[in-house]
Design goal:
The protein is built from nine helices and 16 strands. With 301 residues, it is an alpha+beta fold. Strands 14-13-12-15-16 form a five-stranded antiparallel sheet, sandwiched between helices. It has a four-stranded parallel sheet with strand order 2-1-6-7, with helices on both faces. The protein has a four-stranded antiparallel sheet with strand order 8-11-9-10, covered by helices on one side. Strand 6, helix 2 and strand 7 form a beta-alpha-beta unit. The chain starts with a strand and ends in a 12-residue tail after the last helix. 43% of the residues are buried.
Length: 301
C-alpha cells in the first residue's frame, strides 16, 4: 500500500514513528507538506499536486495537521477525499474538533459530561458569563489555542474581567469554563483508534501550573480507566467523527468530564509513558479499513 502523511515536518516524533511503523509492515510512505501542495479543482478530475508531481497513486492519507494550517491543510485533505483516497481522519471531523465551540456543542448534544462553559460576544456580558460557570476561579480559553496556549486561569473575578476585556480588545473569540479544583492539575489522555482505547496516561501539571500539557513541563504516568471514563472518551471521539483521536478527560466529583478532543494527538508522550506501539495500531487500522471511496463525507463536508 502507498500511504501519504500530511505533515509539515518529517522529523517530528509522531510523523517519523508512523513512517517507521508503515515501512516495517512493507508499505511505501511519503511525507507531504500540505502547504507545498496545490490543487486542480474541477468537477471531472480533482487533483492534488505536490511541488511538480501529481499525487494520484496514494491508497491512504494520514493527516497530521498543525492547528496553524488547519484551513489550507483540510482543503488539501478534502481534495484527496474527492479523489476517492481513503483518509484516516476526514476533513470535516478535523474541522469540528479544531473549533472548540463547535466541538463542545456537539458533545453537549450527545449528553457527554463537560465542565460548565459559556460563550458571548459582548464584554457587557462578562459578569453574567462569570456567574454562569460558578464564579472565580475559572478558566478562559481561546477558541484557536493548542497545547495549553491561550488558556488562562483567572483566580479572581477582577482578573477574569481583565482577561475577557483583553481578549475582546484583540478581537479574539474565547470560552469561559468552570474550574474543576478537585482535578488538581491532572487530566487523562485517552488515545483512541477505530473506536477502541489503545493507550492511556495521566498527565500532571508541574508545581505552580494548572495546565498538564507535557510541552509545559507536565509529567505522565500510566492510569487505569473506570468504565464510565472509557465510555465518555469513546463517545466523545465518535461525536467528532474521528477514527484516531486523543480525548482528554478530567476526574470531577460529578464523574469524568471531557475537556478536549484532539484530531492529531502526539505519539511521543503516550508511547514513552505506556510502552505501547501506538503507531502500529494506527497502521493496522488503515490496513483493515483503507478502500477507495470509503470515507463517509467523500469531500462534501
Amino acid at each position: 500500500m502507498k500511504i501519504g502523511i500530511l505533515s509539515q515536518n518529517a522529523a517530528l516524533y509522531s510523523t517519523s514513528r508512523l513512517v517507521q511503523a508503515a515501512e516495517k509492515r512493507g508499505h511505501v510512505v511519503q511525507v507531504i507538506d500540505p502547504l507545498q501542495c496545490f490543487m486542480d479543482i474541477t468537477s471531472h478530475r480533482p487533483t492534488v499536486y505536490y511541488r511538480n508531481r501529481k499525487l494520484d497513486d496514494f491508497e491512504a492519507i494520514i493527516p497530521r495537521i498543525g492547528a496553524s494550517v488547519t484551513f489550507y491543510a483540510t482543503a488539501v485533505l478534502r481534495q484527496f477525499e474527492m479523489m476517492g483516497v481513503y483518509c484516516l481522519n476526514e476533513s470535516v471531523a478535523i474541522s469540528r474538533s479544531r473549533d472548540k465551540l463547535r466541538a463542545l456543542q456537539l458533545l453537549a448534544r450527545k449528553g457527554i459530561g463537560m465542565p460548565v462553559s459559556g460563550f458571548a460576544h459582548s464584554t457587557k456580558m462578562s459578569s453574567e458569563l462569570i456567574k454562569l460557570v460558578g464564579g472565580a476561579p475559572l478558566v478562559i480559553k481561546l477558541l484557536e489555542g493548542t497545547q495549553g496556549k491561550g488558556v488562562v486561569l483567572a483566580e479572581t473575578t477582577q482578573a477574569a474581567e481583565s482577561v475577557i476585556d483583553a481578549f475582546r480588545d484583540l478581537d479574539e473569540y474565547f470560552l469561559v469554563q468552570e474550574f474543576i479544583k478537585e482535578a488538581d492539575g491532572a487530566d487523562i489522555r485517552c488515545f483512541i483508534v477505530g473506536g477502541k482505547i489503545v493507550a492511556t496516561m495521566m498527565r500532571k501539571a508541574k508545581s505552580g501550573e494548572f495546565r498538564s500539557n507535557l510541552h509545559r513541563g507536565g509529567t505522565a504516568v500510566t492510569v487505569k480507566l473506570t468504565p464510565e471514563e472509557r465510555k465518555s472518551a469513546t463517545r466523545a471521539s465518535e461525536a467528532m467523527g474521528l477514527n484516531v483521536s486523543g480525548v482528554d478527560i478530567i476526574r470531577s466529583k460529578h464523574g469524568p468530564l471531557v475537556i478536549e478532543v484532539n484530531s492529531s494527538p502526539g505519539l511521543e508522550g503516550i508511547e514513552k509513558t505506556t510502552g505501547k506501539d501506538v503507531a502500529s495500531e494506527i497502521i493496522d487500522y488503515i490496513e483493515k479499513n483503507a478502500k477507495p471511496h470509503a470515507n463517509k463525507t467523500k469531500g462534501k463536508g
